[in-house]
Every structure is written in structure tokens, then in C-alpha cells.
């Protein structure tokens, strides 16, 4: 029996390895659309939330603001995003989707569905639902301030 501290069977390592495997597939398949996995994540955040300041994008993506700035620069040059001044505070530049990215989003969704379908082959709907519920709980437990988790 493997040692319980073996990183290959640790929950944290399995979770990270699963995320990395999915990210690699997004990277590979996103290349067909001309976008990287990082660009894909940024587009999804803007699609979900609407136009956002770069600082908020950095928080959501958990990367440094300068990295987001460079990423947005490249994506703007490629026609994926636009920047414009916030109507309430003209010092803030909002990042929004272009028609090109909106038109491509359906293709991105199909690719994502294919990746998840492939990833979940052999997993029963019941096991999927249990795993999904457990992951949502894990996220909630680690996102809430200590002592406020509901049981």
C-alpha cells in the first residue's frame, strides 16, 4: 500500500493535477481558435461579469495587475477585447468583449463541453453530482471567513 503522504495520491495533488490536465486541453484546443488558456479564462470572466476594470480582472484571475495589462494588450491587438473609460471614473479603463469574442464564445462553449465530456468518461451521473457538490462545498468552505461556514 502506498504511503499516505505520497503526493500522487494526496487529495490536493489530485485536485491540482486534474485542473492542470483540463487546462492543458483548453490550451491545446484553444489554439485552434487563436487563444491561450489564460486568454480563455479572461474572456469567460468578462462574459460572466460584463465590462470590468483591469484591477478586478487581476483579482478574479489571481494574477498580478501588470500581467493582466499585458494579457489585455495582446488580446486587444488581436481584436478580442476593447478598453474604454469608466463613465463614473475616467481614470479607470474598463475591459469588454468585442463582437469577435462574442461570436467565438459559442465555439469556445462547444470545445469546453467536449473537454468535460472526455474528462468525465466513465464517471456516472451520480458520481459527477457528488463530486460537483463536494467541490462547491470545498470552495465555499475555503472562501468564507473562518467561523461562518454553514453545516
Automatic annotation (TrEMBL):
<dbReference type="InterPro" id="IPR039422">
    <property type="entry name" value="MarR/SlyA-like"/>
</dbReference>
<keyword id="KW-0238">DNA-binding</keyword>
<dbReference type="GO" id="GO:0003700">
    <property type="term" value="F:DNA-binding transcription factor activity"/>
</dbReference>
<dbReference type="GO" id="GO:0006950">
    <property type="term" value="P:response to stress"/>
</dbReference>
<dbReference type="GO" id="GO:0003677">
    <property type="term" value="F:DNA binding"/>
</dbReference>
<keyword id="KW-0805">Transcription regulation</keyword>
<protein>
    <submittedName>
        <fullName>MarR family transcriptional regulator</fullName>
    </submittedName>
</protein>
<dbReference type="InterPro" id="IPR036390">
    <property type="entry name" value="WH_DNA-bd_sf"/>
</dbReference>
<dbReference type="InterPro" id="IPR000835">
    <property type="entry name" value="HTH_MarR-typ"/>
</dbReference>
<feature type="domain" description="HTH marR-type">
    <location>
        <begin position="8"/>
        <end position="144"/>
    </location>
</feature>
<dbReference type="InterPro" id="IPR036388">
    <property type="entry name" value="WH-like_DNA-bd_sf"/>
</dbReference>
<dbReference type="Pfam" id="PF01047">
    <property type="entry name" value="MarR"/>
</dbReference>
<keyword id="KW-0804">Transcription</keyword>
Amino acid at each position: 500500500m502506498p504511503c499516505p503522504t505520497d503526493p500522487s495520491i494526496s487529495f490536493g495533488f489530485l485536485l491540482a493535477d486534474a485542473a492542470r490536465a483540463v487546462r492543458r486541453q483548453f490550451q491545446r484546443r484553444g489554439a485552434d481558435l487563436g487563444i491561450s488558456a489564460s486568454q480563455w479564462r479572461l474572456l469567460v470572466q468578462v462574459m460572466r461579469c460584463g465590462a470590468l476594470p483591469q484591477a478586478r480582472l487581476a483579482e478574479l484571475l489571481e494574477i498580478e495587475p501588470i500581467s493582466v495589462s499585458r494579457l489585455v494588450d495582446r488580446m486587444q491587438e488581436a481584436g478580442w477585447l476593447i478598453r474604454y473609460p469608466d463613465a463614473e471614473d475616467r481614470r479607470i479603463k474598463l475591459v469588454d468583449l468585442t463582437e469577435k469574442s462574442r461570436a467565438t464564445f459559442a465555439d469556445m462553449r462547444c470545445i469546453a463541453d467536449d473537454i468535460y465530456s472526455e474528462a468525465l468518461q466513465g464517471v456516472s451521473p451520480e458520481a459527477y453530482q457528488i463530486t460537483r457538490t463536494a467541490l462547491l462545498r470545498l470552495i465555499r468552505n475555503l472562501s468564507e471567513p473562518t467561523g461562518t461556514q454553514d453545516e
